[in-house]
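User: I'm curious whether this sequence folds into something compact or stays loose and floppy. Could you predict its structure so I can see for myself?
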Amino acid sequence: MTSEKIRVALYVQKAALQFIDAGKRVEYKLSDEARQAGFGIDPSELASVVRGHDSKGLKLHGGIEGIARKLCVSLNNGASETEVPVRQNIYGFNRFVEKPSRGFLTFVWEALQDLTLIILIVCAVVSIGVGLATEGWPRGIYDGLGIILSIILVVMVTAISDYKQSLQFRDLDKEKKKIIVQVTRDGLRQKVSIYNLVVGDIVHLSIGDQVPADGFFISGYSLLIDESGLSGESEPVNVYEGKPFLLSGTKVQDGSGKMIVTSVGMRTEWGRLMETLNEGGEDETPLQVKLNGVATIIGKIGLGFAVLTFLVLTARLLVEKVLHDEFSEWSSSDALKLLDYFAIAVTIVVVAVPEGLPLAVTLSLAFAMKKLMNDRALVRHLSACETMGSATCICTDKTGTLTTNHMVVDRIWVSNETEVMKGSKSADKLKSTLNQGVLSILLQSIFQNTGSEVVKGKDGKNSILGTPTESALLEFALLLGGDFDRQSHEYKIVKVEPFNSVRKRMSVLVALPTGGFRDFCKGASEIILKMCNKIIDSNGEPVVLSEEQRKNITEVINDFANEALRTLCLAFKDMDETSKKVAIPEEGYTLIAVVGIKDPLRPGVKDAVQTCLAAGITVRMVTGDNINTAKAIARECGILTDGGLAIEGADFRSKSPEEMKELIPKIQVMARSLPLDKHTLVTQLRKMFEEVVAVTGDGTNDAPALHEADIGLAMGIAGTEVAKENADVIILDDNFKTIVNVAKWGRSVYINIQKFVQFQLTVNVVALMINFVSACLSGSAPLTAVQLLWVNMIMDTLGALALATEPPNYGLMKRPPVGRGVNFITRTMWRNIIGQSIYQLVVLAVLKFDGKRLLKLDGSDATAVLNTFIFNTFVFCQVFNEINSREMEKINIFRGMFDSWVFVAVMASTVIFQVIIVEFLGTYASTVPLSWHSWLLSLLIGSISMIVAVILKCIPVEHPKNESTNKHYDGYFALPSGEEQV
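Assistant: Here's the prediction. I'll summarize afterward.
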């Protein structure tokens, strides 16, 4: 909906700009501040040239060079670091004006909008009015004031909880918007935050990047921009010197380039549009939707009981009046009785409606999101955290996820010899043995054909900015004594074909100083080898590549791959300058070398994979690497097992749907895969096998698979902005171990909500039944409106806070995942709910109807003491039931309880508040102080519920089968047969 609004706003804006251009050109006056700072162009004028794609205006200012002069920057060296504050002062900060965050009072007001609370407020006001008329001041206001105090307490706790959650989401949103861009400042290429970008900065763009501000294209190759987010046009726009306009928020679809920033923040096209739009909030998660449905059903049942209770109580009053011949005599006390009956009915609705369900989900998810941020995982969508707990399959990348993403050249085959590289000594040895001609062409092929750059830092040391593979090659070339600056200035680059996942190669066409052209090509070994018909011999001369040599080189490539090395071939081709149209060739290359690049496994990955397998989560590696390399890494980390299948993308995509159905369950490794293969695999796993699939990705090409998956996990370091935007979770450290943590927290969220639902439904059943039965049989309810409001507090807000924020335990990752379509409220939960409800109802019914005799109560206050004792016992039953709910299957309910300080704090505060309500707030809560042995007895009755819980757990429950994992489903998770519970 938001994207549609953006497009409409853009069209309206463009029409307005065309109307202005059709008339008179707007004159912009340069401000005194800008003139004094040395700038020659007004911020608004600069913004209008880019925004209106005003080629005439650009020409009037002297083109890109003229703009750069007026902005006091060099197109080669960029802006100066010392000028950043001045530029921000004149041209603005690269930040958008965000919707003002809602204050605490807004949340208070929203909490007051609850219909049941509004009805209770009306009841309280009427109660005070009737009370003052009948009992006078101050006694007449006690009942009404008690209800008002309870309402205030409920509202404050709800508002504080929602406010704190909104602050958490605001912090997470800030983290989500942190983007790092590469700029040239003071002649040095460096990384800066998108927020620190200023007008005049020279920004480097590559495939997958988001254009961080409005600006002009300076130089680059095949730069293709996706403007669909702004214009809605699906066709990408080619940006070049003749059409140099770049808009903030668009994405680089192909190619690379440099741009000069001309507008930032609210002066950009995106910023101006965002002024008129408000982004929507988080959608409800699937679990929230499901639980809202449960809450609605329970609420309707509660409403039915409330109406029935009110009718029964009113009928009893009318019958009493008829029997005593008082039907025609009505007093204010009768009106007060009817009002009390109405208040009881309303509070039954309050207790029955489980408002805490959505609150528990939100609290649990917010808590998990905050914890995952500490574990280096940024959850972009609430539902992902919840869904990850049900993941049955993870399709993971290799490079950077399973491995360290710091690549080094480990071996090189050149001049018919293989050299193992072990640091600078090995490099010196290789340099001394290689012919000068071979060394020269090898260094040219590395330094010329690269999208990365060697830059000198302020400390004078070299650092490499670029992809891990290219950084490894550049590092190797520097060890061989190569000079990046000299090489890069020696040849003029004519054309570039950047690497992408379809071509699996990168080519650069350069003009030679002596005349003619030379094309350098590097990429996937088998692809480049097929393109070669010559090879460099030991003297540096191209010779014909024989079939025998081709076989030998193929063996070398396979040997490298079997050692878990990523293999690349380097090649070149010289071309005659008489060619009318110089194009990058597809064949006829001369092979220079085969390079084996190593990327070691990350620490802890092997254990993380084993954890996934023990948890019933299948891990599949999907990579663009050579199949032998992929198999070696997969075996090393435990993904590829004896019965597993490793397949190439080409073989996979050639299979029929029937063959795929047979193959997919066995596939553990897919090598040389295209983005479409990954997307097909994910689609088939979800639709054909009903798996809950998580996918990791870092490139723009991974976006379709990330979008198709149930949970998309983008890499925070290596990932492009397009990949991150299509993902649900961003793995900030690119580590597979972090993905396992997300799954663990996802399972924790699901089971915590189940614990809370079990606890709340028990309270609901008992509160409803005891008041309804008592009202029907005795004409009065033992639990008053104020008391029920306090119980509502315990089971809604405090209960959600206690049970929904329980940290995960290691046992969660020893069980299979929950399958699709499994009932949320399981048979195990129903067993516990019904068992506990029967115990509590029996105890409370005995106390209600025979309590005075059993407790030996007499005197005028006997009824008040009994009702207080029933209320106290009921609350203590809920306190201990909350402890019982921590474990639905295991007998040791105390295990790990003291590790959760939130749970302990909620339990302690509940007991303290209960003491205060009974002993000191009796006037408002309709209670009287109890003796110490009455307190002990309430405590004892409540604690017996723990014995009941143990007995219930000994009753076997037949569990339905979980079709997705083909194992039995034990209520929330199941252990594989024969495995011991943790």
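Summary: The chain has 35 helices and 28 strands. Residues 540 and 942 are 89 Å apart (CA to CA).
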